[in-house]
Design brief:
Elements (H helix, E strand, L loop, with lengths): L1 E9 L3 H12 L4 E4 L13 E2 L1 H6 L9 E9 L5 E12 L2 H15 L2 E3 L9 E3 L2 E5 L5 E9 L6 H7 L7 E9 L10 E4 L6 E6 L4 E8 L5 H17 L16 H10 L1 E8 L3 H6 L3 E2 L2 E3 L1 H4 L10 H16 L6 H23 L2 E2 L2 E2 H11 L1 H12 L7 H10 L3
Parallel strand pairs: 1-2, 1-9, 2-6, 4-11, 9-16
Antiparallel strand pairs: 3-5, 4-5, 7-8, 8-9, 10-13, 10-14, 11-12, 12-13, 15-16, 17-18
């Protein structure tokens, strides 16, 4: 038995589900394929920027945690407490993805809870045909790849990305602290490109580290993350917490965490500058969305905003009868921003005035309200990388 649709969207993460919702509302026949086992979360910190929440306020309908305060730590452990003018949200990806998938279903999309084989996905005269792992055949005029950085559809249509264009995120889902205190923390790593995070969700804390794949060393980074987690649970209110040093009296905390924490790991796109020049995410009767297209900030790894925005742009192009314009639209909309972030990645994590730039950034912010404001805009998603150093330096030079 064959089912026929206008669009076949492989992947029911934020980009795939949002595209399916927008198109189904316009009476487009959409099949949305969700091959993940029920209840299995995507490895992700789950942070959604204020920029995304303002663009799509319906996201607040998902059950999550709104974050008004954030603790930033420099590579040496200096602490900066930020009170955010524009809060962001943290979601469990099970909850967030289910919320968006249900909205797509309610809009009229057909949600298929089966895995799709890229090897068995073929072009036909009328468009595309694919088979699920249950052996069911589906046909559609347009094929959309939206199943993440390891997308088999993306590899088939646009070619694989090299390891240098990938980043690694790994971590643990752990219980909320018994003390009830669960601060949101971002700590820049010493000696590595990247950062660690502690994102409290309604029922647990997501801990993780994001770094480039070419800099990834599993054991030392895992050891670093465990020291970060243990110190977090010790809840010391120091101005300079030594996250990366050995802590005394931590054996019980570590034992309990190792017994209760769930590990996760994933690759995320972090495209190099030159890749943005040649990367094509749209062709004859096909397109890629979100992580499958490489749409993630190479500095922070944040990709939910770009997933949703790429879905919106694709839906607009399709409904206007000009799918091929999607390639131009995403480049004009956020392509230059992502390319600039790729150019700035090494500088952001490199040296500035004899110390890591992230170290200087937090030092300046501790004494200057203007620098703190710029950092708040960066976290909100409103401050890009093009003039970040200039703005930070100019703010730091102003009289207090």
């Amino acid at each position: 038995m064959t089912s026929n649709f206008d669009l076949l969207i492989v992947g029911a993460g934020p980009s795939g589900s949002f595209a399916a919702e927008l198109l189904a509302k316009a009476d487009v026949r959409v099949a949305l394929f969700d091959g993940r086992p029920e209840g299995e979360p995507k490895p992700c910190g789950g942070g959604v920027t204020a920029k995304a929440l303002k663009a799509w306020p319906q996201l607040l309908g998902a059950i999550g945690r709104t974050i008004n305060e954030l603790d930033l730590y420099s590579p040496s452990g200096k602490k900066l407490h930020l009170e955010l003018d524009e809060p962001f949200a943290i979601y469990s990806r099970v909850v967030f993805d289910s919320y968006l998938r249900d909205r797509a279903r309610d809009a009229g999309a057909t949600v298929v809870p089966d895995r799709v084989s890229a090897r068995k996905t073929k072009p036909v005269d009328s468009g595309w045909k694919l088979f699920t792992d249950r052996g069911t055949e589906y046909r559609g005029r347009i094929l959309i790849g939206a199943e993440g950085a390891n997308s088999g559809i993306a590899k088939m249509l646009a070619g694989p990305l090299p390891p240098s264009d990938m980043e690694v995120a790994f971590g643990y889902r752990a219980p909320l602290p018994a003390s009830g205190e669960a601060p949101t923390v971002v700590a820049f790593l010493p000696r590595w490109v990247g950062y660690a995070w502690a994102f409290p969700r309604p029922d647990h804390v997501s801990f993780g580290i994001a770094t480039t794949q070419d800099a990834f060393e599993h054991q030392p980074l895992d050891d670093l993350l465990w020291r970060f987690m243990i110190t977090y649970y010790q809840q010391r209110d120091d101005s300079q917490i030594r996250f990366w040093k050995e802590s005394n009296g931590s054996e019980k905390i570590e034992s309990e965490l190792r017994a209760t924490s769930e590990r996760y790991a994933a690759r995320i796109p972090g495209l190099a500058d030159k890749t943005w020049e040649t990367r094509t995410v749209c062709g004859q009767n096909w397109a890629l969305l979100g992580d499958a297209a490489g749409f993630a900030d190479p500095v922070t790894g944040e990709g939910i905003y770009y997933a949703l925005r790429s879905a919106e742009l694709l839906a607009e192009c399709y409904l206007n009868g000009s799918l091929e314009e999607y390639e131009t639209r995403w480049r004009e909309d956020f392509g230059a921003e992502l390319r600039r972030a790729a150019q700035m990645r090494r500088r952001f994590y490199g040296n500035f005035w004899g110390a890591p730039f992230t170290e200087r950034m937090i030092e300046f912010a501790k004494g200057h309200r203007g620098v703190r404001r710029v950092l708040g805009d960066l976290i909100a998603g409103e401050q890009g990388y093009v003039d970040l150093r200039r703005k930070l330096l100019r703010s730091a030079m102003r009289p207090l």
